[in-house]
Amino acid sequence: MTLSLSEEQTEALRRRAEKEGRSLQQVVQSAVEEYIARHDADEEVRRLGLAAASRWRSVLDRLAE
């Protein structure tokens, strides 16, 4: 895989990696893991919300009246 970053992004990552005592690769891998986890959680919340709305549809309709 090839990742193209701007010079500013690369330099910011380099500074972050240096501050944390990690390699650029470790910082990028960590960012990717966090991104995936956050979006997986968003999807789960959406799924649970739809299930709850479906389950409580009649109550929600009555409250809307």
Automatic annotation (TrEMBL):
Region (Disordered): 1-20
Compositional bias (Basic and acidic residues): 11-20
Top-level taxon in the UniProt lineage: Bacteria
Name of protein: Ribbon-helix-helix protein, CopG family
